[in-house]
Amino acid sequence: MKRFLFALSSLAFFACTQQKQDNQPISGTWRGTIALNDSTHLPFNFKWTSEDSSYTMTILNGQEQIKTDQIKTEGDSLVIHLPVFANYFKVHKGAERMDGYYINPDAKGYRLPFNAMARDSTRFKVKEKNCCDINKKWAVKFSPGTEEEYPAIGYFEQQGTHVEGTFMTETGDYRYLQGVLSGDQLQLSTFDGAHLFYFKGTIESGQKINGRFFSGRSWQEPWVAYRDDDFQLRNADSLTYLKEGYETISFSLPDTEGKTVSLDDPRFAGKPVIVQIMGSWCPNCMDESRHLREVHKQYNAEGLEIVALTFERAQNKETALKRASKMKADLQLPYPVLMAGYTREDKAEEALPMLNHVMSYPTAIYLDKDHKVVSIHTGYSGPGTPVYDKYSAENKLLVERLVYGRSETVQENENL
C-alpha cells in the first residue's frame, strides 16, 4: 500500500512538473498581433528565449532589433516591460501561445488585446505574386485635400513579395517598416515598444498608391503616393528659427535628480552646446538620443556639451520624472536631461519663447562657444531612412565646426 501511495504521489509530482515545463514559452520566432480595433490587427514578429525562469524578448522590424529582458513572472502570467518607453505587455503564458493585453499606463483605459503564436515568422500572408516593382522613391501626401494634409517621402526596398522601408516627413520618419506586396496590395507595419504603425495601400498601374495609415487604438488617415525621384521636403534647418532680436536661447530647469541646470552655469562657459528638445514618448527622439550619445562620447573631451530638455506626456509630475529617468537609464545618456514639461499641456514654445515655434520632437539647437545659435534642425531622419548616413556625416562636420572652428573643419572636409 505504501509503495502504491508513493508511486501515485510521484506520478502526480511528475505531472505537475511537466505541466509547469509545458507552460514555459518555447524559444524561437513568434508572431504577435495587437488589436487596434475590432477590424484592424497589427502583426509583428519577435524572438523569444527561455532559460529556466529567465526570459528575453527581441522585437523584429526589418533591420531593427529591440531587446528586453525586463520580464517578470506573476503567477501564471508574464509582465513584459519594454525598453525606453513606459508601455508593457501582461500575458497568460503558454508553451506555444500567449494571450493578454498591451497596456499604455499613461492613457486612460489603454488596453489592447494581444496574442502570439510560436513557430511563426510570417508577418503578413502572401496570397499571390506581386504586381509590380515599387522600389525607390515616392512623393506622398497624408490626409490629402484636407487642412491636415502634410507631405512625406516614401522609400521602399522590395525583394519579390518582401518589402521594407519607411515614410520620411518634415518632423521625422516612421522608422523601420516591414511587410509584403501581395498582388497589388501593400501591407507594412512596425512596433517599437510604444508606437503601433500599420500602412495599407493599393498599387495602381505601378505609378500610384492609394492607402490608409493606422496608428494606435484610434488614429487613421488616408494617404496617396506617386513615383517621383525628384521630390524633396523643405530644408529641416529652415523650419524653426529665432525670433527677431534674439541671438541665443536660455533656460533654467531641474534635471532628473532635482538639480537646477542653466545655460549660464560654469560647466557650459566658453563651450559649444547642443540643446535637444525631446520626450521619452517620441521614437525619433530615441534615435536622435542614440546618435547624440555617440557624438558626446567623441567630442565631449574636446569641449562639446549636450543637454536635453524633455517634455513629457504623463498624468502628473511624479510619473513624468519616472518616465524621463527610465529613458535616460535605458539609453545610457551621459548628458543631463532637464524636466521642461510634465503633461500634454506643457508646450515647448512657452518654455522657449525666443523660437518662432517648435513643430517637431526632436528639435536640435546648435550653439557656438559664445552660445549664439548657429543652426536649428527640425525632426530627425533616423537609421531606418536611406538619408541617415548622409545626415550623420553632415552633422559631424557641423559639430567639428563648433568644436574646432570653421577653418579646421573645412580643411578636414577637403581631405576626405
Could you explain how this protein is built, in words?
- This protein is an alpha+beta fold.
- The protein folds into 3 domains: 97 residues, Lipocalin (Beta Barrel); 92 residues, Lipocalin (Beta Barrel); 163 residues, Glutaredoxin.
- Helix content is 20%, strand content 39%.
- The protein contains 6 helices and 25 strands.
- Strands 4-3-2-1-9-8-7-6-5 form a 9-stranded antiparallel β-sheet, with no helix packed on it. Strands 10-11-12-14-15-16-17-18 form an 8-stranded antiparallel β-barrel. Strands 23-22-21-24-25 form a 5-stranded mixed β-sheet, with helices on one face.
- Helix 5 crosses helix 6.
Keywords:
eight-stranded antiparallel barrel, Lipocalin, 6 helices, 416 residues, alpha+beta, 25 strands, nine-stranded antiparallel beta sheet, Glutaredoxin
**Mean pLDDT level:** 92
How many structural domains are formed by the residues? 3
Query: What composes the largest sheet?
Result: 9 strands, antiparallel
**Order of strands side by side in the largest beta sheet?**
4-3-2-1-9-8-7-6-5
What would CATH call the homologous superfamily of the largest domain?
Answer: Glutaredoxin
Report the C-alpha radius of gyration, rounded.
25 Å
CATH class of the largest domain, named Alpha Beta
- Strand segment count: 25
**Count of helical regions:** 6
Please report the distance between the alpha carbons of the first and last residues: 88 Å
Write the layout of secondary structure elements.
Blueprint: H1 2-22, E1 28-35, E2 41-51, E3 54-61, E4 64-68, E5 71-74, E6 77-81, E7 88-93, E8 97-103, E9 111-118, E10 136-142, E11 150-159, E12 162-169, E13 172-173, E14 177-182, E15 185-191, E16 196-204, E17 208-215, E18 219-227, E19 252-254, E20 260-262, E21 273-278, H2 283-299, E22 305-311, H3 317-330, E23 337-341, H4 348-351, E24 363-367, E25 373-378, H5 388-404, H6 406-414
Parallel strand pairs: 21-22, 22-23
Antiparallel strand pairs: 1-2, 1-9, 2-3, 3-4, 5-6, 6-7, 7-8, 8-9, 10-11, 10-18, 11-12, 12-13, 12-14, 14-15, 15-16, 16-17, 17-18, 19-20, 21-24, 24-25
Helix pairs in contact: 5-6
